[in-house]
Backbone:
């Protein structure tokens, strides 16, 4: 009987340890995704990233599966860091003003570009400036620029800019969407930055961080979507 109990205890321990290992591996997979998001905003260099990983992954480092996950994590973080450095060298992470001579180079040198055509005396253009300046540092994969419409007559005509402010969204150097005035932002001047971010995310130019839109703002988006569906 004692031998049977011992065998059962050993089997139970094997099950428990196996589940614990699976849980740990699953947690490591989640950590990879979370770390990618965190490091997208980090200014640490590659060696510092590796030191952080060494500190975090001391548990069972001889396990092949855990070692594979750790190596994958390092590779993804290095790739993310390299992409961040490259994007920042192209002006990403900032909200910059350009002139007409720079326009083509700026909208074609990055895959995702948000360009605000503005007038320096328009209050609503200043409101757009405020929101885009807050959004830009949080979306390094996207370039955010502004251009004085009065000083860019060729592209104002070429892109059929009829009202200011107008935000034109480029993907791969092609204008794919635009936000004209504030009608799509609640038709009011005091909309939140989250409303602007949500609208940009709908165009695919940024990834929206959920949980930052109020219930009233969510209702506004649902109402606008219903109106669009009715029109179709």
Residues:
């Amino acid at each position: 009987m004692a031998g049977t109990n011992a065998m059962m205890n050993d089997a139970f321990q094997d099950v428990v340890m196996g589940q614990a290992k699976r849980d740990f591996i699953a947690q490591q997979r989640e950590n990879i995704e979370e770390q990618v998001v965190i490091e997208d905003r980090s200014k640490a260099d590659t060696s510092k990233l590796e030191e952080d990983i060494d500190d975090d992954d001391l548990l069972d480092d001889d396990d092949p599966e855990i070692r594979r996950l750790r190596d994958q994590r390092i590779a993804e973080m290095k790739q993310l860091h390299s992409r961040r450095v490259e994007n920042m060298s192209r002006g990403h992470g900032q909200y910059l003003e350009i002139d007409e001579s720079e326009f083509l180079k700026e909208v074609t040198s990055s895959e995702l570009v948000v360009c605000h055509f503005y007038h320096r005396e328009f209050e609503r253009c200043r409101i757009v400036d405020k929101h885009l300046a807050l959004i830009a540092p949080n979306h390094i994969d996207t370039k955010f620029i502004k251009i004085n419409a009065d000083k860019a007559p060729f592209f104002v005509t070429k892109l059929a800019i009829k009202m200011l402010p107008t935000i034109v969204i480029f993907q791969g150097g092609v204008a794919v969407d635009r936000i004209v005035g504030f009608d799509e932002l609640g038709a009011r001047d005091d909309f939140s930055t989250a409303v602007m971010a949500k609208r940009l995310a709908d165009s695919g130019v940024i990834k929206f961080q959920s949980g930052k839109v109020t219930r009233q703002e969510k209702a506004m988006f649902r109402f606008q979507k219903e109106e669009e569906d009715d029109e179709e």
Notes: The chain has eight helices and five strands. The helical segments are 2-39, 46-56, 64-89, 103-108, 123-135, 153-158, 193-202, 215-231.
